[in-house]
């Protein structure tokens, strides 16, 4: 059990923690902060360009056939999650800034890589997981900012300005569309050099986290967030994940999904994307707010990796046992 838990803490998670520590000790200031911000913006543009080039058009059309499952995943991601978030931020004793971060977390699209990986480990429908996770991320470019504008402004947040909408279009959507349109010419290169995409993916996230937390530290982040606040936030993230895992399990039973499709709903419908959340927060919110907004996103990301890795292994072992029973 200890070895399984330790294996989840891959180098990227350790890099995230180290980046937060670096931003706390040596935050970017002055001209260097401006340069780091421009560099992070360039990384985000390149990241979404490469993701657009990676998305297979054939996978989109194939995935449309299993529309009840995909609709269930999207409903969990963009309807059930936000409803839970709206209820959770009304609990007593939550710092208002962290409450906005929790709400923002619930508005994000699903992850792609970990959703597919955990579905494969659990012996689920990998093809459907690829389609559901891709649909969620594609729609999230538009749906998440719309939900932020609707819900976070109503709840007293900053809302979304015209400049933020322009930022989403120019930094996220336009590069994604351009990459997808150029897929016939560059898709093969991207497919053969997956390590480049991984490097850009993780490097751009670390850059945004460093600049965001650095700006928040300069504005007094750790004087506003106490250890008690962090403890309550950890418990709330655990509660949120437990509720959504239980809800997707029950929905799968009500829909009478096959075990393979039920696994897709549970893993794709319970995830929230750090890779999408970090650049979106950087575009949607003022620099001084981004660090606090991202705290729940980063914490939930690590909790979901640990919990879902253990759950995926459990489902995989069950599938192996069923297979041995059928052979016997």
From TrEMBL:
<feature type="transmembrane region" description="Helical">
    <location>
        <begin position="7"/>
        <end position="26"/>
    </location>
</feature>
<feature type="transmembrane region" description="Helical">
    <location>
        <begin position="32"/>
        <end position="50"/>
    </location>
</feature>
<dbReference type="InterPro" id="IPR038770">
    <property type="entry name" value="Na+/solute_symporter_sf"/>
</dbReference>
<keyword id="KW-0472">Membrane</keyword>
<feature type="transmembrane region" description="Helical">
    <location>
        <begin position="273"/>
        <end position="300"/>
    </location>
</feature>
<dbReference type="Pfam" id="PF13593">
    <property type="entry name" value="SBF_like"/>
</dbReference>
<feature type="transmembrane region" description="Helical">
    <location>
        <begin position="126"/>
        <end position="152"/>
    </location>
</feature>
<feature type="transmembrane region" description="Helical">
    <location>
        <begin position="158"/>
        <end position="182"/>
    </location>
</feature>
<keyword id="KW-1133">Transmembrane helix</keyword>
<feature type="transmembrane region" description="Helical">
    <location>
        <begin position="71"/>
        <end position="91"/>
    </location>
</feature>
<feature type="transmembrane region" description="Helical">
    <location>
        <begin position="233"/>
        <end position="252"/>
    </location>
</feature>
<feature type="transmembrane region" description="Helical">
    <location>
        <begin position="203"/>
        <end position="221"/>
    </location>
</feature>
<feature type="transmembrane region" description="Helical">
    <location>
        <begin position="97"/>
        <end position="119"/>
    </location>
</feature>
<dbReference type="GO" id="GO:0005886">
    <property type="term" value="C:plasma membrane"/>
</dbReference>
<dbReference type="InterPro" id="IPR016833">
    <property type="entry name" value="Put_Na-Bile_cotransptr"/>
</dbReference>
<protein>
    <recommendedName>
        <fullName>Bile acid:sodium symporter</fullName>
    </recommendedName>
</protein>
<keyword id="KW-0812">Transmembrane</keyword>
